From TrEMBL:
SUPFAM superfamilies per record: Pentein (SSF55909)
Pathway assignment: Amino-acid degradation; L-arginine degradation via ADI pathway; carbamoyl phosphate from L-arginine: step 1/2
Name of the protein in its database record: arginine deiminase
Homology family: Belongs to the arginine deiminase family.
Keywords: Hydrolase
Keyword Hydrolase set for record: yes
Alphabetized Pfam families for the sequence: ADI
EC identifiers of the protein: 3.5.3.6
Recorded catalytic activity of this chain's protein: L-arginine + H2O = L-citrulline + NH4(+)
Record-linked InterPro entries: Arg_deiminase
Organism: Rhodohalobacter sulfatireducens
Statement: the UniProt record of this protein carries the keyword Hydrolase: yes
Amino acid sequence: MNINISSEIGVLKGVIVHSPGREVSLVNPNIKEDLLFDDIIFENDARFEHIDMLKIFSAAMPDDGEIFEIMDMAEEVFQSEDVRAEFIEVMIKELPFENIHIIEKELIRLEPKKLVRFVAEGTLEDQIFNLHPAPNLLFTRDLAAVAGDSVILSRAAKEARAREFLLMRTIVHYHPLFDSVKKKAITVGGHQTIEGGDVLVVSDDIVLIGMSERTSFSGLMGVAEQLLNHGVEHVVAVDIPKQRSSMHLDTIFTFADENECVAFPPSIEEKENNVVDLFKNGEGVQCRQCKSLKQTLEELTGKEFTFIKCGGENRIDQFREQWTDGANLFALAPGVVVGYGRNTKTFEALVSHGYKHMNQYEFIEEFENKDLDPQKDRKIAISFEGHELCRGRGGARCMTMPVSRIG
Ligand SMILES: NC(=O)NCCC[C@H](N)C(=O)O
């Protein structure tokens, strides 16, 4: 598969996901906040909801499209004893507060599948030694981001997610899927952080990066410089509130079509001077202060943009639906988006902008045995049920890490 993402909305061809497993059942209510969950979630229903979401993807994706499960990819790379040993060494070194060295010998002896389960669940059979589970593995989006034919390796801002990020790093380094891009992977170091939910690819030339609770200023600048050296012309830095409810740019802003986005008004349209355009000037990087995200996108692309309101016109609905990931839509093709059905006002807003609302069953029935035609089948907003998933504080975009899109 050709690793390439040239837009947020091109026809989806390859995507990495993780259907929630036992790790979510290991979240103890006393530490749920530390694990970045707002509630405990019921594993069985969460898994069914996730699998239902994947059925929508399969119906929409071309015949040669592929959905990759991150646990399977990890198991594949862990077939190599050297890779397993390196991963264990990296965990010990990079997560000193976890004291993993105590069980180094046991970890080395684990077969690949069990090592993957250790990463997700944090426990070893017959051992008292316990790490916290990694329930956020579900949100594969944040672990890395493909922009053009570059892959950005995230660096977690929160300890609770550090193990997942190391797993993705190993997958990118050793899984054949990433063979063409691994050598020029973009990384950050030291105390810099960047998470994939803050990276939105507008085109081959333009990438948006949120400066958020999770992506630091220096992480953003470090990645921007490398992207600009890899052929991107503009990195647009978007300063967003540093808070739990909108921890990444994609919790308040996503693309539905080439020039149509869903935005949470209080943090996007109603903000001014929160955007900086970064571009190359000779060997250095120059920056230009911009008035708003809409104006910047219009200037850089030469197209007019429509921002559809997450939650519609009513203030309370805007806040409620942003909290339940109304703005976190995931595009399967230009103008074909998927999101949680509970965000009814956001779906109404999409309908008022010409989208046809289909629920998951209607969409699957129509497209299961028929190819989605990106020229004809446009402006479809698909809803699915995600009442359990939503408690993890992420939506459809957060649960997907696309690696290949057509266009
Ligand atoms: N891109 C995203 O916004 N991802 C959602 C991450 C939710 C997860 N519970 C976290 O706080 O990291």
